[in-house]
Write a structure and sequence with these properties.
293 residues; alpha/beta; Calcium-transporting ATPase, cytoplasmic domain N; Rossmann fold; 3 domains; 3-stranded parallel β-sheet; elongated
């Protein structure tokens, strides 16, 4: 993730960066981590943060040097009533470039806006392409602004994208699709994704970069955060389902044949042994084929 500081606020640049990086460093959200990392690379000084708390779907807040500050998204600024026409124009221009915007506020005014550029991995494009080849439709759900979400979704080839969603909104979208479009899988890495991960038929957590809440809520943890493994998971699941059906048909078929032969007087002891142990061995050997995958 590449981070660019875009300052147009009331504070001196060094003070605004220091306050924002101090708050971002305490958060586990990917955007905040990117901002904190950029601050570390630029040797921005950090300050002590007291009474730190996350604002779900909006950002974080804390007290620095006795003053309360918030660092959050466009929705947070609207909720605080601190969004001016001039700021809206500035944010709209940044968001249409596919950038995620964060604002540092004191609860009344925006002290400095920041823009974070999300660099799309080639592996992400490959992962979406593999899922499409398997007939899986993709939907991007994000709390980010719709312009940025649509830009990133277009870059990776998503079928659909929705932005400006709170955690409960993501869960509602997942719930609305349950039972209508086949099985629903949800991939997430943060606290905001936990409700949707729990609501989906199967949840995938990005374990390397994810929060403990997301990992505990999800059914599957991707330890190296390689999205291409989701397509492999789907292929393995389909192969496992096919083998299970084969084994059930094979076991019941052999026993049914033996039963018919016994009823017409052609059954024997060795046939009974084969129908029991032989069927078990055939089922085991057939299942071992999955190891090749």
């Amino acid at each position: 993730m590449q981070t660019d500081f875009e300052l147009r606020g009331a504070l001196p640049e060094n003070d605004a960066r220091s306050l924002a990086v101090s708050l971002a460093a305490r958060s586990d959200h990917p955007v905040s981590r990117a901002l904190a990392q950029a601050g570390a690379q630029a040797a921005v000084s950090r300050r002590e943060v007291n009474d730190f708390a996350a604002i779900p779907g909006r950002g974080v807040q804390g007290v620095i040097d006795g003053i309360g500050y918030q660092l959050g998204n466009h929705r947070l600024v609207h909720d605080l009533g601190a969004c001016s026409p001039e700021l809206e124009t500035r944010l709209d221009a940044l968001e249409r470039q596919g950038k995620t915007t964060l604002m540092l506020t004191d609860g009344q005014t925006v002290l400095a806006p920041f823009a974070v550029t999300d660099s799309v991995r080639d592996s992400s494009r490959a992962a979406i392409a593999e899922l499409h080849s398997l007939g899986v439709r993709t939907l991007m759900l994000s709390g980010d602004n719709p312009h940025t979400v649509e830009a990133i979704a277009f870059q990776v080839g998503m079928d659909e994208a929705r932005g400006d969603l709170l955690p409960e909104d993501k869960a509602e979208v997942i719930g609305a699709k349950l039972g209508k479009t086949g099985k629903i899988g949800m991939v997430g890495d943060g606290i905001n994704d936990a409700p949707a991960l729990a609501r989906a038929d199967i949840g995938f957590a990005m374990a390397a970069a994810g929060t403990d809440t997301a990992i505990e809520t999800a059914d599957v943890a991707l330890m190296d955060d390689d999205l291409r493994k989701i397509a492999r998971f789907v292929r393995l699941s389909r192969a496992t389902h096919a083998v299970l059906v084969q084994n059930i048909v094979l076991a019941l078929g052999i026993k049914a044949v033996f039963l018919v032969l016994t009823l017409i007087g052609l059954g024997s002891m060795w046939m009974a042994v084969f129908a029991d142990m032989g069927a078990s061995l055939l089922v085991v050997f057939n299942g071992l084929r999955l190891l090749r995958k």
